[in-house]
Amino acid sequence: MRKSKSSNMIPLLIFGVAILFIVLSLAVPKPGIKQFSSYDELTAFLKERSESQYYYGTDRLGIMEEAITAALPAASNAPTAGGTKATDYSTTNIQVAGVDEPDIVKTDGKYIYTVSSGGISIVDAYPAETMKAVSNISVDGSVSNMFVNKDKLIVFGSEYGYWGGYYRYSSPSSFVYVYNIADRANPVLVRNITVEGSYQDARMIGDYVYAVAQQSVRTVEDRPVLPVMSVGGVAKEISADSIAYFDEYDYSFAYKFIIAVNTQNDAEAPTEKVFLLGYSHNLYVSQDNIYTVYTKYMTQTERNSRLIEALTPSLPLDLQNTVRGIQNNPNITAYEKMYEVGKAIQNYAANLGPEEGAKFMKSIEDRMVAIITGLEKESEKTVIHKISVSGPNIEYRTSGEVPGRVLNQFSMDEYNGNFRIATTTGSSWGGTSLNHVYVLDPSLSVIGRLENLAPKEQIYSARFMGERAYLVTFIRTDPLFVIDLRNPNAPAVLGELKIPGFSEYLHPYDKDHIIGVGQMTNEQGRRTGQVKLALFDVTDVANPKEMSTYLIGEEGDWAYSEALDDHKAFLFSKEKSLLSIPVSVNNWHTDKYVQGAYVFDLTLENGFVLKGTVTHKIANASKEEYYYEGNTAVRRSLYMDNTFYTVSDTKIMANSLTDLSKISEVTISEAIPMPPIVY
Fold this sequence. Notes:
This protein is an alpha+beta fold.
């Protein structure tokens, strides 16, 4: 039988009432930082938390909902290097001025440092006419990214070992290697720091690097294994009484390492702090603070109990009595209670007959439909922990939480001591999503909120710029919201623009113009397969305009740019009118394959003007080589004076920035053919 639209809503609506009940009945105190007094206290803490079941998302259906449904019808300040050096060169595209971010490619205006096969390649790239490779650093493990600071190269990555008995599990460790590169031809490893766990990210402020790693808490014979840190090959176990934690429930815990390293003083020992926090993937770093965030969900046990309690008053009296009897039965688990309540409602609806049963369920829906979209805000929360950093000092400050989940680091910002964050609650495909902006004071208490933007859509990109914020949400068209943050207590929408497509990365052109990089869509909201560049004019904030666009690829192609997912692949210089991103365009039906750096002249007067593309593909290659040649994809581009450089895993190429004519190239590793794709 065909399932009615209203019956599809019932599980979601029932869940919504449970959330509302939690909102009205629970007052959660703000947790504070604590320190374990002993290993036994750490063990007891983790054991208590592991005994709770957790709800992992806003759209998962519980057993009661399933039972009910079954009854229904169906410019540069980079460090110096010796020798001739460019006077003007690009640096890594970063979010916060003064807070450098690690990347797979770095330059100091003379040398290019790039992650290559098995390590780091150093190339003397300026002047381009004499470009040559000078050294290659072999690194055990997988290199993630790096920094360059004066004559020091700081490398981050992970390597894997094994632990366990008969079953052997991969156990990652993260490393921070510091090389003295005063002699670029002969780098020398001077510091070796490793911690158990996965490398997450790092930032460099002045001469100090702050590396973040996290390790899932594992146990041996029901006892937690303490984290280990090694410096110069000397390992030390982090004692339980030096691990900070919060007396709050979460569905997963990880040891979070924050390590401060003085890049210029090898004699200064690194400092570290270890926290027991929820497992996280996003962080935002200002010049003074690290904000690490993660999403927590309500427990499954609590959800089941509240769901029954919230639903009961909406039921007929005789069914209420049945449900309360099930709920008060001490001999069955919360999961079994959900199942039994579901069966009771199923039987009740069935006894009413098809017509009356449908009316019965519709009456429940009618009571819930007015509140359902607002209820998702309480099903998941973003927990924010603020940790101050200054030189070698790492100090925990405070925590806070807001409804919803964050997209990435650009969904967060610190301004005048306040923390701003944009989140999404609910599900766009389930029709329950809402989008929000919150302002938190220095103690991370919410002081301003702008909620319920773009119902049924979700955030695809965000950018905070001083007293404004820009959000892009999407379902069929691309609403660009301009948000006023001059009064932190009362954020407000200034203007909104709806156009085809959506931006996944926003970058300031100047204070009144924004560049968007994203994907094009048709009138039905389906992606056309084209990468879309857009220039927005927000001079009149009440009426933002799309003043220029450029589409890469044709409808039916599959076009992709790494800049959609990683802002460090985005190169822009207003002074040089230069914009470049790496793009691949595929169409297996027409044998089209193009990959390289797309280079644009971008001005307010002319918008996007394609100057050309630079590719690392083999000239005169066969179709098989052209399609399946491996690591020749351009991943980064940069400039030194009037020379444009592109970097792939295979080579570095130098071209004239004036007309993109080739000057020179250097091979840094051999191309690795990819196996043919079989359809």
